[in-house]
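Late entry, evening session. Most of the bench is empty. Finally got around to the prediction I had been postponing all week. Sequence below, unchanged from the version circulated by S.P.
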Amino acid sequence: MSENITVQPSQVIERILTLELVRVTERAAVAASRLRGRGQEKAADQAAVDAMRRELNTLPIDGTVVIGEGERDEAPMLFIGERVGTGVGPKVDIAVDPLEGTTLCAKDMPGSIAVMAMAEGGTLLAAPDVYMNKIAVGPGYPPGIVDLDRSAEENIRALAAAKGVEPRDITVLVLERPRHQDLIAEIRALGCGIRLISDGDIMGIIFTTMPGETGIDLYLGIGAAPEGVIAAGALRCIGGQMQGRLILDTPEKRERAAKMGVQDPDRKYQLEDLARGDVVVAATGVTDGALLQGVRFGPNVIETDTIVYRASTGTVRRIRAEHRERAKFHLER
């Protein structure tokens, strides 16, 4: 499932911090899940943000949020540049999406998650809240098998040849957006299958790493840049290839990007440019999905389902937890 990882175990991110991240996404997922199906996107997002911030601030880290909640949706933020943690501990970059798939949660549809990444300081791309053109495949292919500068047809034919199948046997995941009409038409002209999703392209990219389980071979299209960095962090842990290019199509966006250190607005970022070094990614299901179950509320326990990836060891952990700290969870309502 994963390629050979050459990163050496980090002296910065201790093993205990890897498991502590689980608590952060669990709290956010439980808080948001109380509003599943209520049609209250902003309220669910706010609940997840508040719970995630509270738990982050208990961790023994000197953390800086480099990927935060987005201004584009006027969402409540864990804002870029915010300091989190106790301030005593390793300096780390934090990337958060407290509730990926706010609409999915509001409608109680599959695939909403609470997700975050942590890495050594200065190793995650500080991406502004703009769109990013992305392409991703799972592990096991020659380097450069796909490329943003090629057409969808060229990428699909190259991937099919590497798999030893016909292009029509490739399934591509694409966000269902009007901007992708031409892309969808190009893919369908090859006879390929397309899985269209309404939200959740972090998990969409992760799906390419397990085509036998998900049926997804390739991710193509434009989504949010912050989610692209978090997804890249996951691929760094489990293998695969990804490229991204920021869409800086206005002077205001280019100015914002420049202030965050983006020197070349047209740069094609490779996987290691988006997330390098030791990266840990944790995701907890809010609603049921292909990879994670949503939060379950029982009479005496709250059940959560979390997946945790770590780059330096190539480890993937599945953690299904039963929480009996009901008094604490109720305080978070």
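Two things to note before I forget:
The chain has two domains: 15-123+278-331, 131-274.
Residues 131-274 form a domain with the D-Maltodextrin-Binding Protein; domain 2 fold (CATH 3.40.190.90).
Will write this up properly tomorrow.
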